[in-house]
């Protein structure tokens, strides 16, 4: 059973709208009263929460048309979390582990409807914080993988990409190619996660070098793209597309993590003629438009984890006091896999 909550706890707030990419000083860790249990809500002591690149857009001061609202100075950050119920409501009882969207704080008062139980069969409860449902939904709904496909995953060392390559293989892909700017991450993708090839040249600033690297890795073209980056990597993928290729766009890191701007746009020039003559479908993936994906993914992910068919790459940062540097480190590309802040 969980212990009684303290009178106060800590949460991470936006201190100032970043001038460019966020630095630790743009966030502050504040001491606040622990919320009082309320009808229709559960009080949760968070064990861990996810650090994700989309926060750069939400704190950049120019977020629009996003699934969740942007943040203003003084607002607490939020995001996927896993924690232990302290005061229950509905079907949730004290001691039960749940996921919810109010991370970046030690204690959260969460509407019952926003909580979901953690599958007790998961080898590690932190696996409930994976971004795999995005990759799975995109590769089964928007750009379905077929047996024998050549699949390209951009930003393959991130939380979505590191699972996307493995999912593509499990769905029948014959060849899986990733992109990352780090040779060390590239080695991990091949040696640990089963990628056949990784393009590192030109991923950040040299479109010509990237296009040449992709042509070498996929000499016969690609059938499926799972794109977390956009920019010139997306443009090069259009050039490499086979007839009937399916592209799923799940992120736009080229814009979100650009040093200039607020991370709220990601313009790119694509060859429309190439899209037409090769019959390429290019669709943005949004999970809320695909009911049932979360539940389907949870069942398959748990089974794959228990059988050893999939790995969950995770970087753990200890303590809420290090959360501001964790976001800055993620944006700077210092981490691999899903990044979580663990709480004592």
UniProtKB/TrEMBL annotation:
SMART domains assigned: PKS_ER
InterPro entries documented for this protein: ADH-like_C, ADH_N_2, ER, GroES-like_sf, NAD(P)-bd_dom_sf, Quin_OxRdtase/zeta-crystal_CS, Zn-ADH-like_protein
Domain (Enoyl reductase (ER)): residue spans on this chain: 25-341
Single GO molecular function: zinc ion binding
Top-level taxon of the source organism: Bacteria
Cited PANTHER family: QUINONE OXIDOREDUCTASE-LIKE PROTEIN 2, SHORT-CHAIN DEHYDROGENASE/REDUCTASE
Official protein name in the record: NADP-dependent oxidoreductase
